[in-house]
Amino acid sequence: MTAPEPPPPENLPLPPEVDPWALEVSDLKQYAYCPRVVYYRYRFPDFRPETYKMTRGEAAHDRTRQRLRRRPPRGLPPGKAYHERLLYAPELRLVGRIDLLIETNDSLVVVDYKNARKARPNWKDQLAAYALLAETVLQKPVSEGYIYLIPLRRLEEVPLTGQRKAKIRKMITQIIAEIQQEHQPPPASRRSRCIDCEYRRFCNDLF
Ligand code: SF4
User: Fold this and answer.
1) Which of the residues 39, 79, 95, 155 could staple to 146 if both were Cys, CB 3.0 to 4.6 A apart?
2) What is the pLDDT of residue 170?
3) How many CA atoms within 13 Å lie on the side-chain side of 191?
4) Residue 22 lies in a domain
């Protein structure tokens, strides 16, 4: 029996019942920054205060994304471009929206936009999670991944190694286990990260 054809990228509906334990790719980025933020988010879903900084940051990001839809970064491989493509891989328990996905004849390229002048390590993990998601759902290898640094208008290539993808798989398992077992993870490695944190009041062992 031959394997069924994967659906074309443009028509990937999310199933009506997404696994309630599925994580978002942004959770993995956040987990690397502070594991507790992700834990609180899922353990206390009704509590999600928005700080002024978050609201302002999201509005600016939306405007930038609209601009990049019209004029994508230069220097990327040619292929069919999909903007803000939503993908869900139940087998990974992962869902995410990729800023830019390019499909060439035999591979995929993932691009994440960042309003920064330097790529942070946790953003590289986030890109690896997008790559894992894209190749799982679309059944094509991801050959390249880039972080696009918006203020510099520069693409930074990120090596999407097997080691990095294995780390993502492990992280997904660990996060879900912590939430299911109500095991509060350790706090952020640096207290400076707590200053603007919306969950500060939950960390009363620290303050
Ligand atoms: S206050 Fe600090 S340790 Fe607590 S969730 Fe926020 S960033 Fe993490």
Assistant:
1) 155
2) 96
3) 4
4) yes
CATH code of the domain in which 33 resides: 3.90.320.10
Predicted TM-score (pTM) of the model is: 0.84
How far apart, in Å, are the Cα atoms of 58 and each of 9, 86, 178? Answer: 26, 18, 28
Is residue 79 within 6 Å of ligand 1 at its C-beta? Answer: no
Nearest protein Cα to ligand 1, atom 1: 200
Q: Tens of pLDDT along 93-134?
A: 999 999 999 999 999 999 999 999 999 988 999 999 999 999
Question: 165: domain range?
Answer: 18-202
In a domain, 3, yes or no: no
What is the whole-number distance in angstroms between the Cα of residue 203 and the centre of ligand 1? 6
9: nearest Cα among 76, 72, 100, 90: 100
| Any domain includes 4 | no
- The number of domains in the chain is 1
Please tell me the distance from the alpha carbon of residue 120 to that of residue 102, in angstroms, as a whole number: 23
Residue 5 lies in a domain: no
The best mutation among 197, 198, 206 to test binding of ligand 1, ranked by most ligand atoms within 8 Å of the C-beta, falls on 197
Q: What is the pLDDT of residues 40-94, one digit of tens each?
A: 998 888 776 655 555 555 666 777 878 888 888 999 999 999 999 999 999 999 9
Q: Which atom of ligand 1 is nearest to the CA of 34?
A: 8
